[in-house]
Write the structure tokens for this entry.
Amino acid sequence: MIGAGQVGATCAQRILERRLADCVLIDLVEGLAQGKALDLGQAAAIEGYDLSITGGADYSLIKDSKVVIVTAGLARKPGMTREDLLIQNANIVKGIVEKIKTYCPESIIIMVTNPLDVMAYLAYKISGFNKERVFGMAGVLDSARFRFFIAQVLKVSPVDIETLVLGGHGDSMVPLVKYTKVEDRPITEMLSKEELDNVVKRTRDGGAEIVSLLKTSSAYYAPSSAVCEMLESVLNDRKQLLPVSAYLDGEYGLKDVYCGVPVRLGKGGVEKIVELKLSDDELSALRKSAAEVKDGIESLKNFF
């Protein structure tokens, strides 16, 4: 886990409490990773896990890791878009990925740092890893937010809602309304167009809403849960269908870009990209979202 801030430390906690894997926390802030690792280690006897948790600033601690989760970077502040973070976080991510290449060249990289899709592309280019082993956490989180907001309106459990959110992890994300069901009933039979539009808008603004409320930090509980769902599918080779920011090479008519699409996640990483039948409007929205990611990638052309 690169980055021992709110997202990274909460990810580590969830990994241990779900008994998924031994974990190493890395952070350049003196004492931060060590302190949080020590705290998590002391909870083991109470929570009942016997996995290893260590922390430090020395990247040699990640040697031979199977999966590296990158959460390090500057968090959004109120009024700041993910794109505002682009150059600052690109410098951070570039240095991290070079360390990953050195110490665990056979690993899988899961990118969490924002702007996520562009950072995943940067990690892919800098690492030189095959595209299946570099992907980003986006759609799982966005889909969970969509399910939560629908559940609030309908007063049902979010676990009874099936949906997918595709596209870039930002304002142009694409919630797939026609693939959304509640207890096997189409959502369009349960919510009016106005209600659906409101839920879609709140989903797109989900991260910004939390930032505006917290003032000095961004979301970390739901993002860490999303990361763990992806990690579990990889480590246990579940081949679960999940919306992931993956490298596209012609799928959905998109090329040389990272964007949120449904994939089968297994021990090899992105083992298959699933091409759903989208409406013309949905496909247009997905391509528009990917175009915004490409704009971000273009601004980083000097990095790779």
The chain has two domains: 6-136, 139-303. The domain at 6-136 is CATH 3.40.50.720 (Rossmann fold). The chain is about 40% helix and 20% strand.
